[in-house]
């Protein structure tokens, strides 16, 4: 059997409520890792560019109604359709920075009232992240952003429920980062966490989520 000697890339996932600054921080992180000479690629779920992603996009933008369970499974399928290419990328030594993953899948669907363990099951076996960075926004800031957008979940009470479920999902490889400070201060904190994670996971095997 041929054993790969290429140090693998890390799977870094960002999670948080809507408007917690994930997208900004992901972009800044990719830029600074590239400047440090790391091979890095940015990904985002839902990936709205695929056929499944188009259905999800229509649902989020309220142009289509779908049963809660159906949309939950579509979000999961949207991750599974990316998994082989993610595995290849990581094994080739490229780090993936991923804006939302299976934890969003559970938190948003369970916040609608679906059973949490039912929500977890379709994502069991995805690649386990090396680090989940949870950007937490305090309630004051969340309230100031109340009912801020046009997409389906952008409502304050719903977001508070989502946040509470995210807290239940935390595991030892999660790191909470307060999203209340300045963009640059948050970025610095994240950069330190991620640089350490990339260094430490190079020779570790890729594991499966929740198995
Ligand atoms: P975005 O704003 O990061 O593009 O995410 C779109 C919305 O979809 C956001 O409100 C979170 C929600 N979502 C789910 O409900 N389930 C999922 O599995 C994912 C990845 C996102």
Secondary-structure blueprint:
Elements: E1 11-16, H1 22-35, E2 40-44, H2 51-60, H3 68-80, H4 83-91, E3 95-99, H5 102-111, H6 116-120, E4 131-136, H7 139-144, H8 156-169, E5 174-178, H9 183-201
Parallel strand pairs: 1-3, 1-4, 2-3, 4-5
Helix pairs in contact: 1-9, 2-3, 3-5, 5-8
The protein binds thymidine-5'-phosphate.
Keywords: ATP-binding, Kinase, Nucleotide biosynthesis, Nucleotide-binding, Transferase
InterPro entries: P-loop_NTPase, Thymidylate_kin-like_dom, Thymidylate_kin_CS, Thymidylate_kinase
Domain Thymidylate kinase-like: 14-190
Which properties best describe this structure?
5-stranded parallel β-sheet; 211 residues; globular; 47% helix; 5 strands; binds thymidine-5'-phosphate; single chain; alpha/beta
How many helical stretches? Answer: 9
Could you tell me which ligands this complex binds, including any ions or cofactors?
thymidine-5'-phosphate
- The amount of beta strand, in percent, is 5-15%
The residue ranges in which pLDDT falls below 50 over 5 or more consecutive positions are none
Residue-averaged pLDDT, rounded?
94
Structural class by secondary-structure content: alpha/beta
Morphology call: globular
Work out the radius of gyration. Answer: 17 Å
**Count of extended strands:** 5
Termini separation comes to: 25 Å
* Biggest sheet strand line-up: 2-3-1-4-5
Largest sheet: 5 strands, parallel
The residue fraction in helices comes out at 40-55%
Following the backbone from N to C, one meets helices and strands in this order, namely EHEHHHEHHEHHEH
